[in-house]
Structures are given as C-alpha cells and as structure tokens.
Amino acid sequence: MEEATTEAAETVQHDNPVTTELVEAILAAVEAGDKERLLELLEPLHEADVADLLEQLGRNERRALIALWGVELDGATLSELEEGVRDEIVAELPDEVLAAAVQDLETDDIVYLTEDMEEPQKERILRALDDADRVAVEQLLQHDEYSAGRLMQREVVAAPQHWTVGDAIDFMRAEEWLPDSFYDLIIVDAGMHPIGIVSLGRLMGSSRRTPLREIMHDDFRIFRVDQPQEDVAYDFNKYHLISAPVVESGGRLVGVITIDDAMEVLEDEAEEDMRLLAGVGDEELSDGVAEIAKGRFIWLSVNLLTAILASAVISLFTSTIEAIVALAVLMPIVASMGGNAGTQTLTVAVRALATRSLTAKNVGRFVGREGLVGLINGVGFAILIGVLSGLYFADLLLGIVIATAMVGNMVVAAFAGVLIPLALEKAGADPALASGTFVTTITDVFGFFAFLGLAAALLT
Fold it and tell me: Which domains are seen in the chain, by residue range?
C-alpha cells in the first residue's frame, strides 16, 4: 500500500515538475551563482517545463538565470516559449550561445521560432545556421504565414519504389541528417512525386527482401504548399493522420507535416476563438500592463457603446419605471438570462463552424434545434420567475409580464447565438470576432424593450 502511494506521489510530481519548491531552489542557486546546482536542478526537466519555468520568472530573474546557464540553453526550449519571453531571451543571448541553441532544431521549429521576430533578431538566428539549413528556412519563410508550406519541415525521409525493405533500413542507418522524429517512409517516383507511404512499423515488420512497392499504402493524403493550415489540421484530425507529404504546384515532394505541428494548429485555433469571444486578443502572461490595457481598451470601448444603446432603450420607459419601481429590480434578470443563453448557443455554434460540423446542409436543423431549446428553457424559467415575481410583489400581472419577456428573450438569444457567427463567416470574418458583443447587445436591447414595453402597455 505504501509503495502504491509513493508511486502515485511520484506520478503527480512528474505531471507537475515545476513546483514552487523547485522554482525557489533554482532562484537560490542563481542568486548564489552556483552553476553546478542550477544544472542539477534543470537537467531532469523537459524543454517545455524549462520554458514554463522561464515564463513564471520576472524579467530580472530570467536574465540572471540565462547568464548563469550560458551555453547549456537548448533551442527546443526557445521554441516552447511564448513569443514575448522568447524575444526577450533571444535579444539577451550572445551570438555563440544562440548559434549553439538553434543548430540541432529541425527547419519547421526554426521557422516557428523566427517567423514573428523583428528582422534584426531573425537575421541573427539565420546567420547562426549552416548554409543548407539557412536556405531551407528562408524558402519556408517565403510561403504564406498560415499555409502548409510554412507548417512543413524540409527534412523528408523518402525512398524510390524499386528499393527493398533492406535498402531502406540500410539507408536510414547510414544517414546522419534524419529528423529526430518521423513516422512514415514516403515512396517517390523518378520525378520525386509521392506515390505511397510505408509506416515505420510495417517497414520493420517486413523481411529485408520485400519490395517497398508491395507494402506501401497508395491511399494517403497529400497537401499543397499553398493550402491553409486550418485545412491541414482539420484533415489530420478527421482522418487520424500521423504525417503527410507536402508538394509544390508541379506535384514534386518538398516537405512533410507531422501530427505534432498539425495539433498545435488546432490548439492555436481553439485558443484564438476563445480569446476573440472574450475580446482579449493575443495577450500573454508576460505582456506588460500598458500593452494589455491598450489591447483590452478597444473591446471595452465597443462594449461601452452597446451598453449606451441598451441604456437608451431603458430611457424610453423612464416614467414607467418611476411608476413601478419593481421593474428596476427585475430588469437585470431578463437581460442576464438572455445574455447567458445566447453565449451558450454562440459557443456551440462557433465551435461547430471551426470544426466544420455546421454546414449548409444541416444549418437549418441546427437553427431550429437551438430555437426550440431556447423556447423550452424560456418557458421553464418564465414559469419560475413569473410565479416568484407575482408572489413577491403581490402582482399577478407583473409576473405574466416578466414571464412573457423571458420567453421572448431566450428565443431571440438562441437565434442570435447561431445567426450572428453564421453571418460573420458569410462575410469572410472570423465567426468568433465580436460575436459575443453582438449577441449581448441584441439580448439586452430586446430584453429591456420587451419587458418595459409590455409593462408600459399592461401595467400603467
């Protein structure tokens, strides 16, 4: 029992290696200038964990750690850092340390590392590469930023179809340039056009005399260099791909995309949708106060305008509110319930659009379903709040008014949550962009107008 508990504790420690105690120990080693102790603490950590550690530290603490760490810094750690911290560290690194850090990175990782950098920093990294890698990276950077060409790596393990399994194995054992991780052997014809793939598992499970053309799969997906990376990630997820070749316009093999890069695109897209729905842009934990405040100010300004619009609706019924004070107490309930219901539908709709589950064929069914859900929930909550309001204020008609407004606003919220992102996508904009603001505005304006309008008509 005690052994099991110890193993569980070790598992938890492995899952969360960057503990408060570890951070404090590392800072103590840095403060004491004890490089041996620092290396001892950092050595067991994965590159992503080291990046996590660096992101948690303040700027001065990071500088001191990097200065003591010196040439031990790994290029893989740089590629794991968020952009703001990465640019800051690269700017501080001596050229020889930067060169040592990026030499062993694959071309797609170097592209990811450099693509958003300012030109002077980008040039420093390119200068640190050998001639072949520098040319490969420069060619990749010429492709559109969000294309398959920018996402791929140039290190491709390919073989002609007349080879046997033994030929392929001998080739891979002899070559030193092979990427650290690859999953398939791409079979090509004389013109370097992909005609099939052989998984490494099938390759190693076949006899050396077996011709590659006999074990290759000819049913595989190929991407063009100009295809959007969202399409690539979608296909990887849908068809459970591990890797896929990339070809130029003439069909010639120029690179390969692996699952880790495709899944990173999916993660970035999901995070981008979440940020856009919240109106927080690209901000990172390492960003400064002024930068964050400036980015949020724009969206808050838009929200202010929508709030003024809702207030303008309320101002039309000032005399009604003055005559029946209970309306001021109940107004926020109608608006809040509509806003929350709209956000629920909006989240589902935006995600369905992002995963391409919502199409022209099923959009009518989806809109109808969400409208029905809004109606059912609206009726349920209308009965609840109508009864409570009628009893609390001893006014049955007031309960009917808020119940009716609640049903209407919940249905409107459901339709708005679907139709607004659909309209934005139709217009060529990101469905997550400003959708939340529009939905909230519609539910607030309609909710206030319906509730106060009914109250003015029936209660005064």
Answer: 14-142 (1.25.60.10), 158-276 (3.10.580.10), 289-458 (1.10.357.20)
